[in-house]
Amino acid sequence: MPWYQIFQDGPEYEARRKKTTFDPPNVTIKEVHDAVPNQLFERSTGKSLYYIARHIAVTYGLYYCGQQLDALSFGKVGAPLLHRFIRLLLWLFYWGWQGMSFAGIWALGHEAGHDALSPSALVNSVLGIVLHSFVLTPYFAWRATHRAHHKATNHLDRDETYIPPTRKDLKLPDGRVAVRMDYVQALEDTPAYILFKLFVRQFFGFQLYLIHNRKGNPRYPRWTSHYNPSAKLFRPNERRSIILSNIAIGTMIYIISLWIKSTGWSYVWKHYFGPWLMAHNWIVTFTYLQHSDPTIPYYRKNQWTFARGALATVDRPIFGWAGRFFLHNISTDHLAHHFFVSVPFYNLPAVTEAIKPVLGQYYNYDSTPVIPALWRSFTSCVFIEDEGDIVFFKNKYGEALIQPRIPTEVSAM
């Protein structure tokens, strides 16, 4: 691929964008289910443990390589400032790859949260709480809201993960009278401020969501937290598991504190917190791009169905082979995952191929490279309208790429 094409939209995105109108799908869950061979639903504890062990081995291997950076010496050749710059680049390179590996640990915990690692609920819970606690994610709390997200994907009243701001939320003028300059005055930000917001969202957004429901469903009170067992996010019978998650997080923090006491803050920063922050960057990237795109609809209750919500998903080959190896197909085959949450990740590529003929034009794939795709969504997916049963994101000029054609009735799906 020529270098300049790295910054171009993928042809699949261009094809969706050029349609300009959208007919909501009427694919049924039965049609999709019948296309998948039964053996792909089978979960193997042994196979999952193999993938976990392989991932841990790679993570340790990267950690070993990172330790060598501490001892790296440039001798007396060149300027000290150049040495520091090269060393910083090497640490950033290490954090990027080790962060990818940490994100893969989170992705494996995600699989456990869907009971996809083993037929045993207990095995899934044990693996999930260990994997997620390592990257400071409260496993049972996250699992509760994430399962709710799957039950109401892109439903503007019920989805848990991300509800886009509306015209009213942003205090924008009435769309029937607003002109382009009205939006520019209200929404225009400097490039530096846009980059600052993107930085905060990428590196801290997930933890802020866990701490106080940042960008989550606004129906909850302010400062609703995944760490509060009594939060309205959870059912009463989930409170004990939320407490268990908090104990696990506390235990991990205690282990990290002992590590700091033993090796020093600088060492733990370089080998844990640096990769941990980069992992959050990768986690936010693939989770945001799964459903937030100018060509992907959101639904209100009169037009939402489970199948339509599942189809409001984009498969992306994020980082190519590295994304498949480290992230366990969480981005490349996410649409299939939304239809079949308990199918193990190693079977999802085959499921994707099996359901493509059934989904036809409603299978969403985008080969746009990750950085331009992220920038495109962050700058183009600004708000949605307060009215309408099917809505698409509008940009900072109040423009949507696609307009829905709403049918008179919704078939059962």
How does this model look, in words?
- This is Fatty acid desaturase domain-containing protein.
- Pfam families: FA_desaturase.
- InterPro entries: FA_desaturase_dom, Fatty_acid_desaturase.
- GO terms for molecular function: oxidoreductase activity.
- With about 425 residues, this protein is an all-alpha fold.
- The chain has one domain.
- Helix content is about 55%, strand content about 0%.
- The chain has 15 helices and 4 strands.
- It has helices spanning about 10-20, 30-35, 45-70, 80-115, 120-135, 140-150, 180-185, 190-210, 240-265, 265-290, 305-310, 320-325, 335-340, 350-360, 370-380, and strands at about 20, 300, 390, 405.
- Helix 4 crosses helix 10 and helix 8 packs across helix 10 (about 265-290).
- It is globular, with a radius of gyration of 22 Å.
